């Protein structure tokens, strides 16, 4: 697996609307996922070792972000023919096992991932209350292995700042992860 880093934050870029099915049997949109102070859009998948390394802390952070008025949503855009572990039935099982506190959506056509410019899993997009991009960085210092328990909560701190001020930090460190598995 090739590790990729997404580009730096394109401050102010508007969030792209979506309407996707979730593991909960419901359809979710940009409007239904946002919180009053912003939105975190995460591109993740089941099989990626980078996602597996951060999933517990990601769940913790999303629970706490809800209390700050930041909505969270996870989108899976991989080609499931090539990566059956990421198929909707497995997404549903994983979301239930880990009690995801956010909708986990399936982007079958990969149109949403393309519209956002997602390049890897995990790839994080943090928006303010006006749905303007303010964060495109990493969760923390994790790579393929979990960071130490005392690792700085970079994404959480950035979104906390966005919730309070509407602006993300000027300095951001890109996430790292496996490439989105594009359909051929």
UniProtKB/TrEMBL annotation:
InterPro entries: AhpC/TSA, PRX-like1, Thioredoxin-like_sf, Thioredoxin_domain. Pfam families: AhpC-TSA (PF00578). It comes from the Bacteria. Residues 9-161 form the Thioredoxin domain. This is Thioredoxin family protein.
């Amino acid at each position: 697996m090739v590790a990729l880093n997404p580009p730096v934050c394109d401050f102010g870029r508007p969030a792209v609307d979506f309407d996707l099915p979730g593991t909960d049997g419901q359809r979710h949109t940009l409007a239904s996922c946002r919180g009053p102070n912003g939105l975190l859009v995460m591109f993740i998948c089941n099989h990626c070792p980078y996602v597996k390394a951060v999933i517990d802390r990601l769940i913790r952070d999303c629970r706490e972000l809800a209390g700050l008025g930041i909505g969270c949503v996870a989108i899976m855009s991989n080609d499931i023919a090539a990566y059956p572990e990421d198929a909707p039935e497995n997404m549903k099982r994983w979301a239930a096992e880990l009690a995801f506190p956010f909708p986990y959506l399936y982007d079958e056509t990969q149109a949403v991932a393309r519209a956002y410019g997602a390049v890897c899993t995990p790839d994080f997009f943090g928006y303010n209350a006006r749905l303007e991009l303010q964060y495109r960085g990493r969760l923390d210092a994790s790579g393929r292995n979990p960071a130490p328990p005392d690792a700085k909560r970079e994404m959480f701190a950035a979104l906390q700042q966005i919730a309070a001020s509407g602006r993300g930090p000027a300095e951001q460190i890109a996430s790292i992860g496996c490439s989105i598995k594009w359909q051929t």
